[in-house]
Amino acid sequence: MIELLTGGWRAQLARVGVELGIPDLLAGADLTVAELSTRTAVPQNLMYRLMRGLDSIGIAARIPDRPDGTTDAGATYALGPLGVHMVDGPGSMRDACLLYGDEFHSAWGNAPVAFGSSATGFEATYGTELIPYLAANPPVAKRFQSALAATSFYFDLLADAMEVPVHGVVVDIAGGSGALLTQVLQARPHARGVLTDLPHMLAIADGAFADAGLTERVTTMSVDLFRGRLPKDADIYVLSRVLGDWSDEECERILTNIKVAMGCRSRLWIVERLTRDDGSAPLATLWDLHLHVVNGGRQRSIREYQRLAEDCGLEILEDKRLPADNAALALRLR
Q1: Which CATH number describes the domain made up of 152-333?
Q2: Architecture of domain 2-86
């Protein structure tokens, strides 16, 4: 029970360590408490206690049996097994740690509001909903997309899971930073892609595609998710981690808009965490509540997606399980 009640402390401890840059410092060399204190301007006595805490959660690891480790200031630390994932760089969980420890943590502080009124915890905290907040705060939006990309470790499986044709055209709807489309196009060197999203996201995606050398094979477009005109008759349409942000009525509008663009051989792939009543998807269960608190969204079961699809003139062909309680659902015109 104590571990349950103090779980938030661990997340905040990780956040403090990352904000001070401790994983990056330890990635360069093992350091003593005195050295870490000098480089971070944290007093030695507090740094010793902080490093002891970071050791307890796997961010750092104390090196035993060092002659200079006989005093608190001389205690030496290396990068811990979880700290490796917090070092700044491609695929780092650094921004996810900061996002979860700051904006999401603050929103959860107002979780009772989300269960007792029509407002979300995020709105109660920041005075506006998540998406407008991101649009008005580019640094946070960039951190948000970086966090999404870092938790997209299964995207390299999607080109095969979605059966993308060798010369196919893939339309990634509300594709954010372009992490998914980048992985798909790298796995299919002759395929082409289109990414749609809001204007403030396209600049981030354009930069990612340029870094990956994919600019000539990708078109980015600002398209309204509910009524914007999408490229017609593409081989693959993708909605990855999108429908969880919206109500059933809004999802029906999104799916109906995509249906207008689909051809008879087109496939729409929905990538989301699926809730499962048998208890086999605990992360999806928590994620469902997180979406509700942060933006009023939800995760759904396969039965709920089947109903949505049928109401929009679509049908689900496949339910492919992916890591971390994710799934890829293939839909076609009915």
Answers
A1: 3.40.50.150
A2: Orthogonal Bundle (1.10)
**What whole-number distance in Å separates Cα of residue 132 and Cα of residue 54?**
35
HSE, side-chain direction, 13 A CA sphere, residue 31:
24
Written as six digits, the tokens of 180 are 């998914």
According to CATH, where is 3.40.50.150 located in the chain?
152-333
Q: Which two tokens stand for residue 280?
A: 């086999």
Which residues touch 306 (CB under 8 Å, ≥6 apart)? Answer: 316
- Domain boundaries for CATH 1.10.10.10 within the chain: 2-86
Structure confidence by residue, pLDDT tens digits, 89-115? 988 999 999 999 999 999 999 999 999
Alpha-carbon distance of 270 to 16, in angstroms, equals 36
Q: Pseudo-torsion of CA 63, 69, 74, 79, nearest 10°? A: 0
Q: Does pTM surpass 0.90?
A: no
The residue to which tokens 């051989």 are assigned: 265
From its phi and psi, is residue 91 left (phi > 0), alpha (psi between -120 and 50) or beta? left
Written as one letter, the residue type at 125 is T
Tokens describing residue 298: 């939800």
Encode pLDDT of 140-193 as tens digits: 998 998 898 888 888 989 999 999 999 999 999 999 989 999 999 999 999 999
